[in-house]
Automatic annotation (TrEMBL):
Matches recorded under CDD domains: 4HBT
Pfam families: 4HBT_2
Gene3D superfamilies, per the entry: Hotdog Thioesterase
Name of the protein: 4-hydroxybenzoyl-CoA thioesterase
Originating organism: Rhodococcoides kyotonense
GO MF annotation terms: fatty acyl-CoA hydrolase activity
């Protein structure tokens, strides 16, 4: 069974729009925050360095609205695929009641700052990602 990284955050007062619900752009910020903590903690602990990654693609399905009192939110992060230079990150956003509010899939690319291009995933990085690799293929988003 694969591991799941769980990240908790509170809905901030400034996250709500004029309609009284959390704006969709804030959902994307929540995803980024959870994903950044996941990658940083995982790679720093296992490889000794976070490395550099860039987002190639991001798809989000907004399933339920979030409101000021929806938190704390839980964002579950797993790895959905591992390629040569890229890996898929699956996010599930749940409200304080456990209701699924959003599903998202990010395609992340390992990046070399000096050459300004993608680079292969190292064996150590691949082993770390594999611990969080979904046992069942993720639903397409």
């Amino acid at each position: 069974m694969s591991k799941t990284f769980e990240y908790s955050l509170q809905v901030r007062w400034s996250d709500s729009d004029r309609l009284g619900h959390v704006n969709n752009t804030r959902f994307v910020e929540y995803l980024q925050e959870a994903r950044a903590h996941f990658i940083t903690e995982l790679l720093t602990e296992t490889v000794g360095s976070r490395g550099t990654t860039v987002v190639r693609r991001l798809a989000v399905d907004f399933l339920r609205p979030l409101f000021d009192d929806s938190g704390p939110l839980s964002i579950e992060v797993t790895i959905s695929s591992i390629g040569t230079t890229s890996f898929g990150v699956r996010h599930l956003v749940r409200d304080a009641e456990g209701a699924l509010c959003a599903e998202a899939e990010a395609l992340m690319v390992m990046f070399d700052l000096s050459s300004q291009s993608s680079r292969p995933i190292t064996d150590l990085e691949r082993a770390a990602f594999t611990e969080y690799l979904l046992d069942v293929p993720a639903t397409s988003t």
